[in-house]
Specification:
By secondary structure, the chain is an alpha+beta fold. The chain has 5 domains: 37 residues, no CATH class; 131 residues, no CATH class; 93 residues, Immunoglobulin-like (Sandwich), CATH 2.60.40; 169 residues, no CATH class; 136 residues, Jelly Rolls. The strands form 8 sheets. Strands 20, 22, 23, 24, 25 and 27 form a 6-stranded antiparallel sheet that branches. The protein has a 5-stranded mixed sheet with strand order 5-11-10-7-8. It has a 4-stranded mixed sheet with strand order 12-13-19-18. α6 links the parallel β12 and β13. The longest helix has 25 residues. The radius of gyration is 27 Å and the shape is globular. The N and C termini lie far apart (55 Å).
Length: 613
């Protein structure tokens, strides 16, 4: 109600005076009032604290200790063995629907693999987030929403235990206590993916919430290879550890150049003569590798005439397919939050990856059967393929796990026969910025080597008509090589994102401070073209910045403009189309936003494209 804060402040003040043995706060998550002796805050959580970062920026204004509110909430695939546990009047109809849907899609035999692979990613994300909180000065603890699943609110499979408090089989209590227990060793490192020309560095500390301080503790560390053999080891100075977090234990530094790559390593840190220990998986890649295209393998990005001819002649093709239908999911490393039934605007639609580490296509790309940190350099620059139109017997080599509400067969890498030809398809971007993405570069090399080898012998045949459902022509602006500028842009939401052929990204004007309306985008087509109109795709996740009143101008020099159209768009996420009264020959187009659907001063757009006929 309108007097909520006044009431809660009085209530906390009353109890601080009546019983000062305890600490009091006004509420869980909000409001955060001056009367609080500690805050329970929802802001210091999520991927912004991962990768050696922390949540200091989120709590810098607080003057009292902070407990993190409902951290994590990362989803896992349903455990259908749980159905048999419902022996009373409550029936698991939700699980039965999910199971039957998976059966209809021909993948019921994979559900245990989906559970395990998504579960391992869930544990990785909880570990990363909890440790980021423990690294943060001013954070005194965390709240998990629960250790077990919540059956309500659309089915929230966010627990490491099921609704009956039973283990699901993908993490043990001992493993979980390594990073969420009374004493947790921590290693602050910039990244988990390294190259052989780099020097590894990590700052060691410990979060100790035990009953009493520990005396004369020496931190010891080992670097293990994938067989469990120690390839390096060291120890820090002895020191006392008070009951606190952020207690420094020393620094690890070593040169990667002495170790084989590509390879998986595990850093293990613990206290000598203590029971506490923690570990982190690291991925090492060569600093420089060549990825030449084999002479007998055509690398293509579309089903153009050259690609079709190569397949018709019985040749080999590696198809880097990144121009996909707009309703195909965007790649994501982190899994779904809570569930997409309740939070349906979130862009993430997947629960990590399932793959076969022994498949020859991955021979030169070390991986587990589930998502590890090396995939974080691959997945964000990918589009996930929806393979429901392809033969049921075709199973992807690398398979993103779909939301259990839709149970689509998804693929990131798959192989098939096309007539006499052999086709290897990958929908991750393995062509751009590879020097800064050594994992993506290594995956490219592994796929090329496989395509050139005798092991590349797909058995399932797929028609060209079916394969074409995975592809769409790039937008007109993308094919032209057009560029775009804006009068204002928030960092991370630059104007270029409005013509990147990806509706999951967006341009947004600055929000601090808010630049006043009107706002404009100017598109340079590079050459004069006959234009029949324009399409505007608003952001889908929320209404903020959606354009209401607009004007569209055309010009030849980017200075003098002629108005081609004007109007008002509704507050909807669907793409809006404007046809000019007559075609206009122009090199430049300008879209002017005069107002926003909710009366705010900012503007956003997911995609802009042209009508050329």
């Amino acid at each position: 109600g309108p007097k909520r804060e006044e009431y809660l402040a009085r209530w906390v003040t009353h109890w601080k005076e009546k019983d000062p043995r305890r600490l009091y706060t006004t509420a869980s998550a909000y409001p955060l009032l001056p009367e609080n002796q500690y805050h329970v805050d929802y802001q210091p959580r999520g991927p912004k604290g991962w990768g050696g970062n922390d949540y200091a920026d989120s709590i810098e204004a607080h003057q009292v200790p902070v407990i993190v509110h409902e951290m994590g909430q990362w989803c896992v695939y349903p455990n259908f063995d749980e159905i048999a546990k419902y022996t009373g009047p409550l029936k698991p109809k939700n699980f039965e629907i999910f199971r039957d849907s998976l059966r209809e899609r021909g993948m019921l035999d994979q559900w245990r693999d989906f559970l395990h692979a998504s579960g391992r990613l869930q544990v990785l994300c909880y570990k990363e987030e909890i440790e980021a909180a423990f690294r943060t000065p001013g954070i005194s603890g965390v709240q998990l929403l629960d250790l077990h699943d919540f059956p309500g609110q659309g089915t929230a499979l966010v627990g490491i235990l099921d609704a009956f408090w039973d283990e699901k089989g993908y993490v043990t209590p001992d493993e979980f206590r390594r990073f969420c227990g009374p004493t947790v060793p921590l290693a602050r490192m910039d990244k988990r993916v390294w190259t052989t020309d780099e020097t590894f560095s990590a700052e060691l500390s410990v979060a100790h919430f035990g009953a009493e301080p520990m005396r004369n503790v020496t931190a010891a560390w080992r670097l293990l290879d994938d067989t469990g053999r120690a390839v390096m080891a060291g120890r820090g100075p002895a020191r006392d550890v008070p009951v606190d977090r952020g207690v420094e234990l020393g620094t690890i530094r070593f040169d990667w150049s002495r170790l084989p790559a590509p390879a998986k390593y595990r850093l293990v840190v613990g206290g000598e003569r203590t029971s506490f220990v923690n570990d982190w998986v690291l991925w090492l890649y060569p600093a420089r590798i060549e990825t030449p295209e084999p002479k007998d393998v055509l690398v293509s990005s579309s089903f153009d005439d050259v690609t079709l001819a190569q397949l018709a002649q019985g040749g080999k093709v590696l198809l880097m397919l990144t121009d996909t239908p707009p309703d195909f999911p965007r790649g994501s490393f982190a899994p779904i939050f809570w569930n997409r039934y309740m939070f349906d605007t979130q862009q993430t639609q997947t629960l990590g990856l399932l793959c076969d580490p022994e498949h020859p296509a991955l021979k030169s790309f070390p991986t587990d059967s589930f998502s590890g940190w090396q995939w974080a350099q691959v997945l964000p620059a990918s589009r996930v393929l929806v393979m429901d139109t392809l033969p049921r017997e075709l199973r992807p080599i690398v398979q993103p796990i779909d939301d259990w509400n839709t149970n689509r067969k998804l693929g990131l890498v798959f192989e098939c026969r096309v007539g006499e030809g052999k086709l290897l398809v990958c929908s991750a971007d393995l062509q751009r910025d590879l020097d800064n993405r050594p994992a993506a570069r290594q995956l490219r090399r592994s796929l090329l080597a496989y395509a050139a080898s005798d092991a590349f012998s797909p058995t399932v045949e797929v028609s060209l008509d079916a394969l074409r459902t995975l592809y769409r022509e790039p937008t007109a602006l993308k094919q032209m090589g057009a560029t775009v500028t804006a009068d204002s842009a928030q960092p991370g939401y630059e104007a270029r994102l409005v013509i990147d052929d990806d509706p999951a990204t967006l341009w947004h004007t600055a929000w601090d401070p808010v630049a006043p309306l009107p706002h404009s985008l100017v598109i340079d087509l590079k050459n004069p073209r006959e234009v029949f109109g324009l399409t505007y795709t608003p952001r889908a996740d929320m209404a903020n910045g959606r354009i209401a009143d607009y004007e569209i101008y055309t010009g030849d020099d980017g200075q003098d403009w002629q108005r081609a159209a004007a109007g008002r768009w509704p507050n909807r996420a669907a793409a809006q189309t404007v046809r000019f009264e007559k075609p206009v020959a122009a090199r430049y187009l300008k879209l002017v936003a005069l107002s926003e659907v909710n009366g705010n001063g900012f503007t956003s757009a997911a995609e802009i494209d042209l009508l050329l006929e």
